[in-house]
Design goal:
The structure holds 2 protein chains of 2 kinds. By secondary structure, chain A is mainly alpha-helical. Chain A has one domain: de novo design (two linked rop proteins). Chain A is built from 4 helices and no strands. The longest helix of chain A is centred in the last third of the chain and has 25 residues. The relative contact order of chain A is 0.22. In chain B, a hairpin with a 4-residue loop joins strand 5 and strand 6. In chain B, 68% of the residues lie in helices and 5% in strands. Chain B folds into 2 domains: 200 residues; 250 residues. Chain B is mainly alpha-helical. The longest helix of chain B has 40 residues. Chain B has 16 helices and 6 strands. Classes of the chains: A mainly alpha, B mainly alpha. The interface between A and B is large, with 34 and 39 residues.
């Protein structure tokens, strides 16, 4: 896997996080959006050592430790986000759905890059 | 992953203490500086009290407090420290400023938190290493070292007291600094005497193997408490220990650490608000003053949520090449689960009678809210320190353009002045509102304890003073 793939996966997860973080600034945001963010935050912390993504072009990392395990974690995060979307109000559900889409994109990118 | 040991943290506290004592060679430039030094010194005594309790404490059956055995020299030191703090008229709340006295107090607190991370709420052993804390020889040696430290701190207190007395003459602030100097002279004398007694009593233990090599439990085991209140407390204490070490650069910390702190703070704001709201509703038929107190806590917690959310949002738009240990994320998730167990049933908020079924539960939960909110300024301080360090190292980055094929940020550049200002501003607001929430929850808790004491004590007994109540609340 090339460094730009790792950067792209990390960026997708960051974008998913940003979708949910932006919603937190709305005083009317539901607690479930915070739950969703917490779940994604924990997933990103867990995945960071595997992805070892540095936002710099000079890195030469060509291996993700366990692509299948990482993909599995991302699938779990996607499921959790979809569940939060079902429990949330309209604005929060939209943010959760968008975040879930980015997480799913990250998973697909990981699988295609490591195959 | 580098793990700080108990001995290393104590060593750091000792270095700060010596440097702090050297600072007393210079006169104070302003009355504020003098008051600040006295406040910081009182924080050292408070941290030492916690340290002695954790080292020498024993749990009594059916008694929630863990205290040293009443006849021991350690108990004498504990009570001398307790007495000194209770007589202090200034503030012992955690502050964001950094100075040698303050750094010393923080290092002692971190060392105590390290020991506490191995023990459960009833002093049960959470890790195999916990047995070492209860090993009598290791305990005696560690107590000897702490007593020697306390003795040095008492000696430093004498120098500080003389400087405070100088300042009371130099600056026109009648009585205030002179009173603090008088308190400090009395405090350092009694604490010094009690510390000397422990040093003499434990002299045979000096130099033997102690707890110096003990490492913190948080990096070894996740939370496993079945009691959600204890679990929330433990998870938060570990997050705070992470924050302390990350702020000092002892542990890797990127922008992800700031996201984790902000998430923890927002969880505390939301769930703390739910607990305070439940108490408010439960006592709606009671006196208006009680309602007003609980409402003030709710408002303070809600006011804290927004600045932390702004900080989280600002941090999400940045990146760094350094990463925090994954366990930090897990502790935040544990904190979320524990707090959600208390206040919610799936996606439904529990009704007040479910959250607070009895008075003891209510008291415990209000204490939990106070414990969590009173330490949040520490997280804000750590966030600030990490931001500045990342910026200094040129490691605070932002996306600069989109990748055409992915429609995503791809290239990165150092953060712009505007975004940095936004990040710093959000951090400052989070710090200020957290400090406000901490002081509000403390005031309400003191009043609550006062009411309970008045309810159980015969009318002929004197009402405990504010200082006693403040001490009991800790």
């Amino acid at each position: 896997m090339k460094d730009q793939d790792l950067t792209a996966i990390s960026s997708l997860l960051d974008t998913a996080g940003a979708q949910l973080a932006r919603r937190q600034t709305d005083p009317h945001a539901d607690i479930t959006i915070l739950d969703a963010y917490t779940a994604l935050l924990a997933t990103r912390f867990e995945l960071a050592p595997y992805l070892t993504v540095m936002p710099a072009p000079h890195l030469d990392i060509d291996v993700v430790a366990e692509p299948a395990a990482v993909a599995n974690d991302l699938a779990t995060a996607w499921t959790a986000l979809r569940e939060y979307a079902l429990e949330s109000n309209e604005a929060d559900a939209l943010a959760c759905t968008r975040a879930a889409t980015y997480v799913d994109d990250a998973r697909r990118h990981l699988l295609s890059a490591s195959s | 992953m580098s793990d700080e040991t108990y001995g290393a943290l104590l060593g750091e506290a000792e270095r700060h203490l010596i440097r702090a004592i050297f600072t007393t060679h210079e006169a104070f430039c302003s009355p504020d500086q003098a008051h600040q030094a006295a406040d910081d010194y009182a924080q050292i005594l408070l941290s030492l009290k916690g340290g002695v309790r954790t080292l020498a404490g024993v749990a009594k059956p059916n008694h929630p407090a863990v205290l040293p055995p009443s006849t021991s020299a350690a108990a004498g030191l504990f009570h001398a420290l307790d007495d000194a703090i209770s007589r202090f008229a200034g503030s012992t709340e955690a502050r964001s400023w950094r100075g040698e006295w303050n750094d010393c107090a923080r290092a002692i607190s971190a060392a105590t938190a390290l020991l506490a991370s191995h023990l459960g709420p009833n002093r049960d052993h959470r890790t195999p290493d916990a047995a070492l804390i209860d090993d009598s020889e290791a305990r005696r040696t560690a107590l000897h070292r702490l007593a020697v430290f306390t003795l040095t701190a008492a000696e430093g207190g004498r120098h500080l007291a003389l400087r405070l007395r100088d300042a009371s003459i130099r600056f026109p602030q009648p009585g205030k600094l002179a009173t603090t100097a008088k308190w400090l002279i009395a405090a350092q004398a009694s604490v010094g005497e009690a510390a000397a007694a422990v040093v003499i009593d434990h002299r045979t233990a000096a130099g033997r193997q102690d707890l110096a090599m003990l490492q913190p439990a948080p990096l070894l085991v996740p939370t496993r408490d079945s009691d959600p209140v204890a679990a929330a407390r433990k998870s938060f204490d570990r997050i705070r220990l992470f924050a302390h070490r990350q702020a000092r650069g002892g542990l890797g910390a990127g922008i992800d650490a700031i996201r984790a702190y902000a998430t923890a703070a927002m969880l505390i704001a939301m769930h703390g608000h739910a607990i305070a709201a439940a108490a408010n509703e439960k006592h709606s038929a009671e006196s208006p003053s009680r309602r007003a107190e609980l409402t003030s806590v709710r408002h303070a917690l809600l006011a804290m949520r927004q600045p932390w959310a702004e900080l989280l949002s600002a941090a999400e738009s940045c990146a760094s090449t350094v990463f925090s240990p994954p366990l930090l994320g897990r502790e935040v998730a544990c904190l979320s689960t524990s707090l959600a167990t208390i206040t919610r049933d799936s996606s439904r908020w529990r009704v007040p009678t479910e959250i607070l079924p009895t008075m003891p539960v209510e008291e415990r939960l209000l204490q939990l809210v106070h414990h969590l909110s009173s330490r949040l300024p520490d997280l804000a301080t750590a966030a600030k320190a990490i931001t500045e360090r990342l910026y200094e190292h040129g490691d605070l980055l932002v996306p600069t353009r989109e990748r055409a094929d992915l429609d995503l940020p791809y290239r990165w550049a150092p953060i712009s002045a505007e975004r940095l200002a936004a990040l710093r501003g959000a951090g400052r607001a989070a710090q200020a509102t957290s400090a406000k929430a901490a002081s509000t929850s403390a005031a309400v808790l003191y009043t609550s304890i006062s009411r309970q004491q008045q309810a159980v004590k015969p009318a002929s007994l004197a009402t405990p003073g504010r200082a006693t109540l403040r001490r009991l609340a800790r």
